[in-house]
Amino acid sequence: MFWKSLAMSVVLGAALVAGAQAQQAVTLSVSVRNHRFEPTQLSAPANTPIVINVKNLDSTQMEFESVSLRVEKVVAGNGQASVRIRPLAPGRYEFYDDFNQQAEGALVVH
Amino acid sequence: MSVRSVALAACAAACVLGASSVAASAQSAAPNWREIETKYIFGFTEGSGVGLEGEKEFSVDTEARIGKSGGRYFASESKLEFEFTPNQYIQLEFGPFVSAHSISNVRDLDDRQQLGLGGFFGEIRAMLLERGPSSPLALTLSAEPEWRRLDETSGERVNNAELELKLDGDIELIPRRLYAAFNLLFEPEGTHDPDHVGAGWEMESKAGVSGALSYRILPSLLIGFEAWYLRHYDGAWLNTFTGDAVYIGPTLYVQIDRKMFLAASWNTQVTGRDVEYPDDRLNLSEFSRHRAKLKLAVEF
Question: Using a CB-CB distance cutoff of 8 angstroms, which residues of chain B are in contact with residue A96?
């Protein structure tokens, strides 16, 4: 019974991930300079996979993090990284730098 | 030093750690009321959180059972738990656990002072409904198989397998301040020849429902209250009712720093029925008088 539940959960998760990736993703970009996001607000359409390219222009590392987006990603100083986000319902989703929490931003999904 | 002394010392150390974190938070010039992960803020009741993709965590998660009929009874299981979230829908956990038993003069149990490897566990959590701007309710399904070599109640050497299935739901009643949760539990388990008489697997099962509230009084501190109703049966499919119990108690969650937290709870059995001892006001055969949970976790 457990193995059946486990298999179903893995299949369900894989299907959700695969389904999300099969759709054409919207790509957004945000930079961090002097421990601030630029721009502080991003926009994206609802129910569409999203890729956020995070460019860290500071020399110290930062961590792009969001509870509602359910992601965290460390970006090295003067480095960049991509964060993949599942299709989202309309609303406002906040993100921040977990290493320097004064850096805040939001993704607004229409 | 007894097992119970070690557990109490760990609790005291955790409380000091938590208090210093709260003091630091209270002195902060700019309180930060960001969204929080809800999985561990409700005590024994689990919230719906599945973590953040890319997050890894190591924790020591101890559940203790204290008090039986007469005598002295203390038993605990401490999970050494590795948890990670491979994507935004699923969370996985696994690890060994250490069992401790300190039992003397308890009805139907042998005296025992013991500390040893109790077994191994794994868990998969799948998000069914996510909280978002349009839905304050979130639901997660979890399945946790466990294998034990030491019986969780008596501490005897056993070959025991258990599957804990839960539906974890929570809702944000006041944004970023007040949260409510419920759990639905079904837990079949089997023990191979527990009386050493050449019998096969002896099956039993447990069902339960809980409700919990957690209020965020500081950005890094939540306190709450939970209630559990648990039923025990002989047979894997809730076949023959043998007793039930109601627990209530407080909960605590402290974010010690941005990558470390502590969660604690204490439940007391307030009423219970035992089919075998119908005159008893509590069910202390299948459940303990008190139970406590203490989890210290480090994310990386």
Answer: 34
What's the pLDDT tens digit per position in B188-211?
999 998 888 888 899 999 999 999
Q: Which band of pLDDT confidence, cut at 50, 70 and 90, is reported for residue A36?
A: very high
Confidence check: pLDDT of A109 > 70 = yes
Contact flag A96-B34 (C-beta cutoff 8 Å): yes
d(CA A47, CA A109): 9
A interface mutation test: which of B55, B90, B139, B187 has the most A CBs within 10 A?
B90
Report how far apart, in Å, the C-alpha atoms of B206 and of each of B23, B191, B193 are. Answer: 41, 14, 19
Report the number of distinct structural domains present in chain B.
1
Q: Which two tokens stand for residue B277?
A: 């001892």
Residue B34 lies in a domain: no
Centroid of chain to Cα A105: 12
- Point out the least confidently predicted range of B21-25, B56-60, B128-132: B21-25
Q: What is the pLDDT of residues B228-281, one digit of tens each?
A: 999 999 999 999 999 999 999 999 999 999 899 999 999 999 999 999 999 999
Q: Write the DSSP symbol of residue B97.
A: E
> Residue with structure tokens 């460019």?
A55
Q: How confident is the model at residue B32 (pLDDT cuts 50, 70, 90)?
A: confident
In a domain, B55, yes or no: yes
Q: How many CB atoms lie within 10 A of CB B135?
A: 14
In a domain, B231, yes or no: yes
Q: Containing domain of residue B228, as a range?
A: 3-29+39-299
- Mean pLDDT, chain B, rounded, equals 91
**In contact, B16 and B24? CB cutoff 8 Å:** no
Has residue B108 been placed in a domain?
A: yes
Alpha carbon distance B193, A22 (integer Å): 51
Q: How many A×B Cβ pairs under 8 Å?
A: 74
**pLDDT for the residue B10:** 47
Is-contact B1 B235, C-beta < 8 A? no
Chain B residues with beta carbon closer than 8 angstroms to that of A73: 54
Domain of B24, CATH number, reads: 2.40.160.40
Q: Which CATH number fits domain A25-109: 2.40.50.140, 3.20.20.70, 2.20.25.90, 2.60.40.420?
A: 2.60.40.420
